[in-house]
Design a protein that fits this description.
Length: 471
């Protein structure tokens, strides 16, 4: 076989370039080269010319082995490589079992046929400079995670064979690495949890988005799920999946996040319900702040109804750990099953916004009773109880008119929360003289010592705590 063959020349030059890029000294590189390839027509001077050429920074020539088939390369090399094929194949298979996130990211990009420069650009853009230094990336790129001992034995050519054999394997890794949609939705914080193992799974089904999340034993600072009108979003830390009518709108609303536009906008409320259910049923999930928000007229009503049916259908034996829970615009009957999916004792702070509330059974749950802080926006105080152990309570009452006011509920609430270390009740309503008289009658029982009235705002102070009446 003549060294005039272009493919043959490219293989040899690639081997020299590989040693230069991995900082092999000239003497060791030449010895390894001769030992691996056997007698060849490339003499010492020609080898030194190309070694010096690449060492001088002329490494822009793309390594030809990235585009050559395994069989084509091996046919140009001595029989040594034929004997190594079985070991190469096993090593390539083992690469699929790696458990480091760096391996996962780089192998994924390898499978996308990305060059070293493209991989570096993607990592810099999405993962930041601290993810991996360029020199280390370069080293791993060309060595391709082969074991150091084996590399030292046979020189610097084995990595390219591993790479080509790896690409030749028809069955690609089935586990999701970054996402099915490439680097456009890679998150700096979320990507650390992706690997080729099954310790963490994140599924996006963009065609009909019936199941938004399937999670393992990972901890998030905040999970936020919002569904408004025809739009719904799921946010995990800084990772945002958005189902929007218009992609431009989503990008304007979240300029620092990458937004994925769904192909199916037909049944967003179904997706929203399934998304929340997926979170609540992830039994080993640990969340610092879980925020659930349904709004948007008919869709929100349908989503509430569907989610209620699903929550009651599934067993609540498995609990997720949540420190802080925020629920907005859910119907009161939905609250008890949601609370019962949470592990008692972990819930510390609750924020609820329920505009049409009445007596609700969620006040009887262990999760509600174990909380220490509450921030509530309610339309009335019916059934409000079991708050004796709360340390801090803030209540905003949306009294749109005097007919909303139930004196007995207000008195009962004041009695209930009076043991709290700090509490605030803010009453929002149009000014009504009858309401003034009612407050003037009720509040003195709780120790009013000063009352100020100016314009349409009434502030009533008692025992260092306060009830606000605002027009």
């Amino acid at each position: 076989m003549s060294t005039d063959d272009p493919d043959f020349q490219q293989v040899y030059k690639s081997c020299i370039l590989l040693d230069v890029l991995t900082n092999q000294p000239f003497s060791k590189s030449y010895v390894n080269f001769k030992n691996v390839h056997g007698p060849i027509d490339m003499d010492f001077d020609e080898f030194k010319f190309w070694f010096d050429w690449f060492s001088s920074g002329n490494s822009e020539m793309a390594p030809g082995f990235l585009h050559m088939s395994f069989s084509k390369i091996s046919s140009h090399l001595p029989s040594f490589w034929s004997r190594s094929q079985e070991r190469v194949h096993k090593m390539a298979e083992s690469l699929k079992k790696t458990n480091t996130r760096r391996d996962s990211v780089i192998i994924y990009l390898f499978l996308q046929r990305k060059s070293l420069e493209e991989i570096d650009g993607i990592i810099q853009k999405w993962l930041g400079q601290d993810f991996i230094e360029y020199t280390e990336l370069e080293y791993r790129f060309y060595k391709f995670y082969a074991r150091k001992k084996e590399l030292d034995q046979i020189g610097g050519v084995l990595p390219k064979l591993i790479f080509m054999e790896f690409l030749a394997i028809e069955e690609k890794p089935k586990n999701l690495c970054l996402t099915d949609y490439g680097d456009q939705v890679v998150s700096k914080k979320l990507v650390r949890y992706f690997s080729l193992e099954e310790t963490f799974r994140f599924h996006l089904v963009c065609s009909n988005a019936r199941k938004l999340v399937s999670m393992g034993t990972k901890k998030f600072q905040k999970i936020e799920f919002r569904q408004k009108s025809a739009n719904c979003t799921l946010k995990l830390d800084d990772f945002l999946i958005s189902y929007e009518n218009y992609l431009d709108y989503a990008n304007n609303q979240f300029p620092t996040k990458r937004v994925l536009n769904t192909k199916d906008r037909g049944n967003m409320y179904l997706d929203a319900a399934d998304g929340i259910l997926g979170i609540l049923r992830s039994s080993r999930l640990r969340i610092y702040h879980l925020l659930l928000n349904f709004s948007g007229g008919t869709n929100a009503i349908e989503a509430n109804k569907l989610l209620g049916e699903k929550l009651l259908k599934y067993s609540q034996d498995s609990k997720i750990r949540v420190d802080q829970l925020s629920i907005t615009t859910f119907s009161p009957e939905m609250l008890k099953p949601i609370f019962e999916y949470l592990k008692p004792g972990d819930l510390k702070k609750i924020h609820l916004e329920i505009q049409k509330c009445g007596r609700s059974e969620f006040y009887e749950t262990k999760q509600w009773k174990s909380a220490k802080q509450a921030n509530l926006i309610l339309s009335n105080l019916e059934g409000f109880e079991n708050v004796e152990d709360f340390e801090k309570i803030e209540i905003s009452l949306l009294w749109r008119n005097y007919e909303d006011v139930k004196v007995e509920h207000l008195i009962g609430t004041l009695n209930s929360i009076s043991a709290a270390e700090t509490f605030t009740i803010a009453i929002y309503s149009k000014f009504d003289y009858d309401l003034w008289i009612m407050l003037d009658t009720v509040i003195p029982e709780f120790g009013i010592w000063r009352r100020d009235y100016s314009g349409n705002t009434l502030n009533v102070h008692f025992l260092g705590k306060s009830v606000f009446f605002m027009a």
